[in-house]
């Protein structure tokens, strides 16, 4: 059963359209044909936002091929690549627009706050591109609360922020009301922590062994409540009224159908909130996927 209100909060992630993505992904990159089936279904059920990035392989091109042949009303958020992979902000944005076959983006994010701190000039360029109508909202993709504090310290005015948030990762919860007061659109990602929620807790890579008890608690709660792990993770973030949109990717049409059907279980999630609090993890070696392969 679909919950139309929460379907509208979904921002479909498209990293899988251009690359192998997610620790639990066993099928690899989604083919162009599969991607178009996913986008077609997403448009039909009322999903209106897509998340992509220049560094997601061919993701922007795959979306552009679909958009050029359909009238799907997608609002697209993309991200500026790292300094080493781009030229001026305008040239970089225009290349994304060309690949996406659109005249303007809904959102354009600086992919790394560290890049911004090293060279804030592109941010000034982005503000000018917003004034010229090439993008509606500009902002940042962040990985830790320290990133947010650095932006606040520098008094940077931004419209949109994307951050990780899940039953495991609660580091940003105290900021959500702050963003609301500042009228900053909050888009959350990593709701399944790149698939960690679905791994066998007894067969975890050594780097992730600290997550074992938390995954076991999640599985136990799933069994006792009759709600799938997928449904628990997804509806936990959708139920938060301070969250503007929720990004998740899929590896096929069946998975998108399953995820969207799980939105019908949202009311039950609110009754389980206290139990879900026990699943949170503090260790950033687990919460930050880029650290999983570090020695």
Descriptive notes:
This protein has 295 residues and is an alpha/beta fold. It has a single domain (4-200, 242-264), classed as TIM Barrel (Alpha-Beta Barrel). It has 14 helices and eight strands. It has an eight-stranded parallel beta barrel, surrounded by four helices. Strand 5, helix 7 and strand 6 form a beta-alpha-beta unit. The longest helix is centred in the N-terminal third of the chain and has 14 residues, at 32-45. The chain starts with a helix and ends in an 8-residue tail after the last helix. The mean pLDDT is 88.
Summarize, please.
This protein has one domain (4-200, 242-264): TIM Barrel, CATH 3.20.20.100. It is built from 14 helices and 8 strands. The protein has helices spanning 4-7, 32-45, 59-67, 89-100, 113-118, 121-131, 145-153, 173-181, 212-225, 229-238, 253-261, 266-271, 273-277, 284-287; strands at 10-13, 49-51, 75-80, 105-110, 135-141, 160-164, 185-189, 245-249.
């Amino acid at each position: 059963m679909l919950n139309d209100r929460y379907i509208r909060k979904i921002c479909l992630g498209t990293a899988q359209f251009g690359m192998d993505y997610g620790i639990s992904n066993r099928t690899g990159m989604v083919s162009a044909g599969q991607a178009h089936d996913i986008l077609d279904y997403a448009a039909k059920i009322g999903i209106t936002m897509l998340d992509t990035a220049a560094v997601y392989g061919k993701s922007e091109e795959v979306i552009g091929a679909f958009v050029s042949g359909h009238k799907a009303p997608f609002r697209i958020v993309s991200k500026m690549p790292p300094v080493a992979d781009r030229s001026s902000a305008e040239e970089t944005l225009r290349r994304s627009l060309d690949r996406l076959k659109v005249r303007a983006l809904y959102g354009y994010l600086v992919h790394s706050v560290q890049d911004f701190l090293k060279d804030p000039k592109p941010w000034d360029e982005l503000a000018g591109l917003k004034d010229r109508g090439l993008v509606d909202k500009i902002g940042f993709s962040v990985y830790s609360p320290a990133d947010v504090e650095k932006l606040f310290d520098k008094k940077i005015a931004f419209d949109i922020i994307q951050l990780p948030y899940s039953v495991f990762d609660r580091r940003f919860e105290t900021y959500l009301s702050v963003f609301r007061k500042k009228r900053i659109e909050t888009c959350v990602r990593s709701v399944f922590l790149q698939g960690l929620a679905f791994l066998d807790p007894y067969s975890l890579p050594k780097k992730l062994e600290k997550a074992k008890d938390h995954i076991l608690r999640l599985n136990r709660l799933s069994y006792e409540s009759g709600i799938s792990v997928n449904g628990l993770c997804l509806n936990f973030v959708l139920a938060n009224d301070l969250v503007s949109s929720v990004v998740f990717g899929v590896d096929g049409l069946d998975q998108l159908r399953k995820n969207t059907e799980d939105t019908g279980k949202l009311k039950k999630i609110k009754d389980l909130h206290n139990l879900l609090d026990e699943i949170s993890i503090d260790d950033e070696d687990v919460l930050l996927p880029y650290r999983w392969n570090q020695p």
